[in-house]
């Protein structure tokens, strides 16, 4: 099989449209994929200007571009420094392809896609400039991209809403947490004062004790005082853990930096994510 025959087979069986135009943008040849992509026959397209197939091209170029040198054959660049120019929109597409790759365009085509990808090359053939154009229908990909973007935006909105809700609850607890912390501190200080006075009070009310008896009493008092140090029940300890976690949350949400706007897993030092989740769950969040 000759190489040209293989190229013809590939072009005929491809899922993209491959066409060529002259210097003025008039379509010279087109592959059968035009039937699938644009729902048109080859004979309906050949002879038309390329901007009739894709009307939005008439709006281009909207920005400045550099005219590219036509390629001699498929690879060799023309040595002449002068650049022959074709119609503006074809020159724009060829320049964009050479600088940035494919050009993606949203357009209203009655019998075709809404989004197309264009790869345009400027070629010198038998002394004349022609343009080769590869067209792909990327409408479905663009729809998928928009759906993903919408999902991401909705997710960000939900995260922001939930973070705002958590922040409101945490901020509302600040005054109560301060009062709880003050109460616990006072209880601890009072307990220490009582412990220091108990031994002196007991010994002062007891007469005629020898050193051995005093030592035994001191040991007994010490043991009982150690036991009495645990004044907090399990519920009180849980309250303290709750208080410390809420204080950590309050510190996180109290900052103005961008990093603190949304709570991240593992952001609470000394508190596991499961504990944070349980805490927020107990608050109905």
List the helices and strands and how they pair.
Elements: H1 3-13, E1 17-21, E2 27-30, H2 34-38, H3 42-45, H4 50-53, E3 71-72, E4 76-77, H5 88-100, E5 103-106, E6 115-125, E7 128-137, H6 139-172, H7 174-204, H8 211-228, H9 234-254, H10 273-282
Parallel strand pairs: 3-6
Antiparallel strand pairs: 1-2, 1-7, 3-4, 5-6, 6-7
Helix pairs in contact: 7-8, 7-9
Could you walk me through the main structural features you see in this protein, from its secondary elements to its overall organization?
With 285 residues, the chain is an alpha+beta fold. It folds into two domains: 3-137, 2-Layer Sandwich (Beta-Lactamase), CATH 3.30.450; 143-282. The protein contains ten helices and seven strands. Strands 1, 2, 3, 4, 5, 6 and 7 form a seven-stranded mixed beta sheet that branches. Helix 7 (174-204) packs antiparallel against helix 8 and helix 7 packs across helix 9 (234-254).
Radius of gyration: 40 Å
Instruction: Please provide the ordered H/E string of secondary-structure elements.
Output: HEEHHHEEHEEEHHHHH
Class derived from helix and strand content: alpha+beta
Share of β-strand residues: 5-15%
How many domains make up the coordinates?
2
Biggest beta sheet summary: 7 strands, mixed
Q: Regions with pLDDT < 50 over 5+ consecutive residues? A: 73-78, 256-261, 265-270
Q: Report the span from N to C terminus.
A: 70 Å
Residues in helix, %: 40-55%
Number of helices: 10
Count of DSSP E strands?
7
Query: What is the average of the pLDDT values?
Result: 76
Oligomer: single chain
Shape: rod-shaped
């Amino acid at each position: 099989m000759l190489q040209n025959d293989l190229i013809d087979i590939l072009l005929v069986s491809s899922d993209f449209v491959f066409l060529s135009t002259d210097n003025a943008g008039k379509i010279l040849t087109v592959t059968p994929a035009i039937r699938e992509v644009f729902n048109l026959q080859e004979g309906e397209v050949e002879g038309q200007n390329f901007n009739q197939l894709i009307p939005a091209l008439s709006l281009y170029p909207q920005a400045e571009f550099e005219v590219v040198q036509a390629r001699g054959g498929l690879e060799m660049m023309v040595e002449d420094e002068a650049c022959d120019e074709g119609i503006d929109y074809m020159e724009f597409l060829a320049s964009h392809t050479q600088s940035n790759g494919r050009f993606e365009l949203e357009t209203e085509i009655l019998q075709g896609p809404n989004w197309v990808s264009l790869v345009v090359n400027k070629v010198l053939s038998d002394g004349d400039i022609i343009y080769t154009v590869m067209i792909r229908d990327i409408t479905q990909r663009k729809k998928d991209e928009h759906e993903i973007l919408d999902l991401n935006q909705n997710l960000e909105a939900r995260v922001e809403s939930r973070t705002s809700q958590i922040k409101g609850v945490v901020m509302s607890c600040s005054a109560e947490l301060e009062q709880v912390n003050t109460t616990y501190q006072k209880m601890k200080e009072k307990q220490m004062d009582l412990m220091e006075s108990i031994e002196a009070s007991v010994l002062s009310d007891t007469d005629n004790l020898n050193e051995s008896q005093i030592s035994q009493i001191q040991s007994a008092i010490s043991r009982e005082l150690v036991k009495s140090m645990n004044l907090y029940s399990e519920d009180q300890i849980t309250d303290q853990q709750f208080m410390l976690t809420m204080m950590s949350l309050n510190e996180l949400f109290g900052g103005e930096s961008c990093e603190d706007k949304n709570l991240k897993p593992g952001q609470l030092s000394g508190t596991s994510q499961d504990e944070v989740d349980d805490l927020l769950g107990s608050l109905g969040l």
